[in-house]
């Protein structure tokens, strides 16, 4: 994953001061590779990488982060911004029904989305109606009717079995769209979802039809549905639809597959339109609001490492960090007091177990983590508090009789004191390494 690659890139780097140009270039190379792996369009990758490079070169490395975390943070911020920042909600009409038109290539997932959206809106107390304007494919109308039935909403279609009492002109999707909106007004549906026809490729006639539907019904939202597996074609398709129907938002479909979501970045980047929803399966419930931050993590394949970074930044006491940094610089020994202070920092970050579970690679140590008991931190605290100040600074003097005394004082078994001293020795080694290489603070003390 990208985070592994970045960790490797920075293994020998000191975690202090400004990033050098060579460091940044090495990292940006990895980011470029990761984005291409995620199927982000080449020109988008190029532009993105240039921007990251510029920002990273000017960045000061924050105390709580090592350089790779710092760059990952910048990458994440940029990704989230391109993807639209905050999750964007549907804009509801102030008066009359809210009209939502769907556009996209054939097979993109429009008809399925119509049902998902209807079900979702219905659950929120709306009363949607679906309008079948795909009159090109023989079964398209029937498909929408089935979808509507499953979602428990009305479907307006130029077909026997339609809910309309109007005289609906068959064969003309623009007229059907108009009649559908009229039907919604009369039957007091507050949302109209207009399903349209697509083609396998971008096609002038289809685009013209979509444009005419748009002009006829003046939708509040035009959602461009795109298959997230589309890969490098995402840019051309998105640009064509943006020019053709000037969509207002993007829906990423089939995100349940192997797609890493690069299409989201490509489309958002070249059109500047927000991604609003994600479709994640064939069932009507496989549908969610799109969260730019989650997608950024998915694109970078980082688990929730960003959440970790954020929490580390928040919890890591700046003064404590400065004191530690000075200590390392002075080559002073890491003491049991420091060890305890770190354990307390970890506690500040929230549930240690939950945190560690979010880290990439955590599955390897999942079993150990599940056995980990947070009361362990309490026991460590009790044990360290039973030591004399001298013992805490020079644990080597803690012989057998001292161990027995400490165990009695803290109400634990001698073996637990031994275990703690062993872990401390490991942590001491780790802290020396961190001092040389930079890295995630606050991790020592984990029982192995
Ligand atoms: P349309 O041509 O744009 O209307 O696309 P459809 O809604 O008919 O979907 C085309 C195919 O993709 C159908 O077989 C759907 O079941 C399937 N499909 C749609 N959305 C998703 C999704 O989010 N995940 C998966 N796995 N399949 C989907
Ligand atoms: Mg369809």
Describe this structure in words.
This protein is 54% helix and 9% strand. By secondary structure, it is an alpha/beta fold. It has 3 domains: 2-82, SRP54, nucleotide-binding domain (Four Helix Bundle (Hemerythrin (Met), subunit A)), CATH 1.20.120.140; 98-291, P-loop containing nucleotide triphosphate hydrolases (Rossmann fold); 305-437, 434 Repressor (Amino-terminal Domain), CATH 1.10.260. An 8-stranded mixed sheet has the order 3-2-4-1-5-6-7-8, sandwiched between helices. β5, α9 and β6 (249-253) form a beta-alpha-beta unit. α7 packs parallel to α8 (204-217) and α19 packs across α20 (414-437). The longest helix is centred in the C-terminal third of the chain and has 24 residues, at 414-437. The protein is elongated, with a radius of gyration of 29 Å. The model is unreliable at 12-16, 161-165, 360-365 and 438-448 (pLDDT under 50). Guanosine-5'-diphosphate is lined by residues 104, 106-112, 198, 225, 253-254, 256, 279-282, 286. Residues 110-111, 134, 140, 195 line the site of magnesium ion. It is found in: Cytoplasm. Residues 436-448 have a biased composition (Gly residues). Residues 274-287 form the SRP54-type proteins GTP-binding domain. GTP binds at residues 104-111, 195-199, 253-256. GO terms for molecular function: 7S RNA binding; GTP binding; GTPase activity.
């Amino acid at each position: 994953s990208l985070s592994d690659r970045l960790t490797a890139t920075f293994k020998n780097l000191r975690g202090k001061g400004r990033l050098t140009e060579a460091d940044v270039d090495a990292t940006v190379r990895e980011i470029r590779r990761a984005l291409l792996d995620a199927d982000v369009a080449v020109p988008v990758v190029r532009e993105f990488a240039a921007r990251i490079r510029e920002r990273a070169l000017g960045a000061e490395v924050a105390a709580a982060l090592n350089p790779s975390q710092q760059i990952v943070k910048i990458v994440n911020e940029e990704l989230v911004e391109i993807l639209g920042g905050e999750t964007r909600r549907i804009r509801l009409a102030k008066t009359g029904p809210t009209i939502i038109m769907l556009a996209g290539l054939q097979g993109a997932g429009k008809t399925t989305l119509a049902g998902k959206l209807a079900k979702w809106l219905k659950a929120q107390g709306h009363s949607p109606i679906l309008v079948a304007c795909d009159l090109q494919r023989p079964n398209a109308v029937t498909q929408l009717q089935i979808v509507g039935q499953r979602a428990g909403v009305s479907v307006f279609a130029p077909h026997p079995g339609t809910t309309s009492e109007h005289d609906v002109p068959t064969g003309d999707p623009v007229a059907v769209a108009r009649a559908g909106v009229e039907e919604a007004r009369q039957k007091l549906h507050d949302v109209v979802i207009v399903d349209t026809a697509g083609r396998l490729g971008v096609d002038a006639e289809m685009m013209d039809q979509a444009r005419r539907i748009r002009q006829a019904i003046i939708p509040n939202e035009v959602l461009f549905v795109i298959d997230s597996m589309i890969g490098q074609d995402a840019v051309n398709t998105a640009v064509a639809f943006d020019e053709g129907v000037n969509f207002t938002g993007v829906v990423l479909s089939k995100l349940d597959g192997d797609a890493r979501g690069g299409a989201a970045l490509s489309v958002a980047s070249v059109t500047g339109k927000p991604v609003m929803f994600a479709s994640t399966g064939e069932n009507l419930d496989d549908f969610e609001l799109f969260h730019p931050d989650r997608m950024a993590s998915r694109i970078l394949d980082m688990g929730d490492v960003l959440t970790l970074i954020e929490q580390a930044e928040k919890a890591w006491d700046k003064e404590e960090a400065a004191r530690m940094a000075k200590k390392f610089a002075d080559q002073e020994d890491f003491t049991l007091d420091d060890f305890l202070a770190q354990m307390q920092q970890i506690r500040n970050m929230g549930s240690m177990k939950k945190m560690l579970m979010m880290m990439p690679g955590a599955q390897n140590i999942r079993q150990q983590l599940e056995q980990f008991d947070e009361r362990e931190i309490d026991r460590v605290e009790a044990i360290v508090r039973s030591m004399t100040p001298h013992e805490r600074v020079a644990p080597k003097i803690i012989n057998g009789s001292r161990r027995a005394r400490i165990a009695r004082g803290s109400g634990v078994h001698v073996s637990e004191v031994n275990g703690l001293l062993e872990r401390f020795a490991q942590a001491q080694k780790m802290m020396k390494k961190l001092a040389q290489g930079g890295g995630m603070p606050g991790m020592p003390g984990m029982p192995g």
